[in-house]
Structure formats: C-alpha cells, structure tokens
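Hi L., both proteins are below.
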Amino acid sequence: MTRLTVNERPVEFAMDPRTPLLWALRDAANLTGTKYGCGVGDCHACTVHVDGAALRACLISLAECEGRFVVTVEGLARDRPHPVQQALVAEQAIQCGFCTPGIVMAAAALLARNARPSEAEIKAAIPNLCRCGVHPRLVRAVQRAAALARGEEQTIGEGPAPAPPTREGDRQ
C-alpha cells in the first residue's frame, strides 16, 4: 500500500505503486478535478501540488508520492474560492474549463513562491495548453490573483463589479 496525504487527509492506495498519481486520484480517490489531457505531460491539465511544487500527475507514480503531501484543485481552498479561481472568473479567463484546474494549480504554486510575478514569470510558470485561447487574459488574471493574495484588492464579489476585458486587450 502506498501512503500519502491528499488534501490534508491521509490516504492509502491499494494499487500498483507504478500507477500514475493521476489515475489514483481520479479512479480510487474520486478526485476528478485533476484532468487527463494527453498522458505524456505536454498539456499540464493534470497539474497538482506535490509538497508545494506544481507537478503533472500523469508523470509521477504513486511510489514517488509515498509519504508526500498532494493537493488537488478540490483541496486548494476551503471556505471560498482561491484568489486564482476568483481572478480567472473575474477576468473571464475561462472558456470550456477543461484546462482550468491545471492552470489554477500552476498559478497557485507560482503565487505561493512569488507574490509579485512578472509577466515573463507567469508565462514560464503556466505552460498549460488551452485550446480556447485564454492566454492573454490569463496573465491579467494571475496578476489580479497576486494582488488579491497580497490583500491589495478586495475579494471579488465584495466590491463593485470589475469592467469586462476589452476585445483590444485580448489581442496581445
């Protein structure tokens, strides 16, 4: 049995230790927010935090997770959406939503280690593929999430509604 902590709860997986973490989370733990995209680590849809680092769950085995702390999108925030989730909605940086959990996890890991990331740092930390093309809005959303996390902006929903992004701003 492989033992690890998932979303602050100890878990034992009675699965082959070579099983990718992705399948243990989705099939055994029923944490389906972690998405299967490509299975080879290119799309980053399966991004989770392992000991605070954003890793692709399709590339890490259960054996490699033994004794480690894993956080999925379901465990990222407790009482309200994480600042990254709030900002993605406010900046209208979500289309179909399939890639969103992986993007949220990559952005949250970035903000946990860097409270004021530059545009270049955001782009480097979030290599997730999004077929809907939200990338121009994504940088603004992560910048806004950083401000929220630093307490420089009200929690979204507590103040006046933000203006929607302009079409010109989307063409970067």
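That was the first. Here is the second:
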Amino acid sequence: MTMDTGLAALLGASIGSLTTLGAAVVSGRAQARAQHAQWRRQHRRDAYAAYLSALHDRDVAMDAILDELRSHRPDLPEVDEKVRRFIALAREVHRAMEVVIMEGPPSVAEAADRVAQASGDLSEVMRRMVRKAHAADATDMAQDRAAASERERSLYKAVADFRTRARETLDRAR
C-alpha cells in the first residue's frame, strides 16, 4: 500500500512537471511569435516611413523644378542644379523602395510600384519641359503645364494609396 501511494505521488509529480513544462513551452512559443510579429511590424513601419520621407524630399525637389519651369524665363543653371538634386533624391527613393518591396507584403509592394509609375510619368513631363526650356521652345507650354498638373494629382493619389496599404498592413500586425 505504501508503495502504491509513493508511486502515485511520483506519478502525480511527474505529470504535474510535464504539464508545467508543456505550458511553459507553449507560452514561450506564443511569446516568441508575438515578439517576432512586433519586430516584423517595426521593420515594416521603419521601411514605409523611410520610403515616404524619401518620396517627400524628392517631390519637393521636383516641385522646385516645375515651379522654375513655369516662369516665362527660367534660370537654366538653377534648373540644372535642381535637376541634379532631384536625380540624387530619386536614387534615395529607389533604394527605400527596394526595402519596402523586400519587407512586403505584396499589396504594399504593388502600391509602391504604382507610385513609381506615377512618378515616372510626372518625371517624363518634367524632363520634356527642361529640354524645351534649354531649347527656348515655348510650344505646347500650356499642354505641358496641364500634363504636369494632372500627373501630380495622379502621383498624389498613388502615394495616398500607398499610405493606406501600409497602414492596413501595420494595423493587421497588432
């Protein structure tokens, strides 16, 4: 009888220990998953913020070029300097976009691609306006200005969509 009580106590202690160990393992895994999700969310947030910051800086530079080109007599050396700054900032946007694409998810990467397309469309008009300014060619200036304005609106919408996709992704990760 004593042996059965001792064996039962040992068996009970063993089961209790295994249960405690199992609960600790499950709890540890859950905590590790939660920490990883938070780490991933923070990396995505940082990537999205860096991208938006680079876009902002680049867009300010583009606005400066377009403002100068909208005058009837643009200061061409000034325009060229602003174009060089724009190009350097565009490279920063591209680098930041690569991180956004890598961090994902696909919906955010696709939104960033749409921003890149809209940016390229506006840059195309800007480059055409710069070429015409250097050639002292004022033909189609009104159409170029209208095209630039329309493409600026498209770019703004694409950036707003990117922000929405990024926010949705970060909100799901909470």
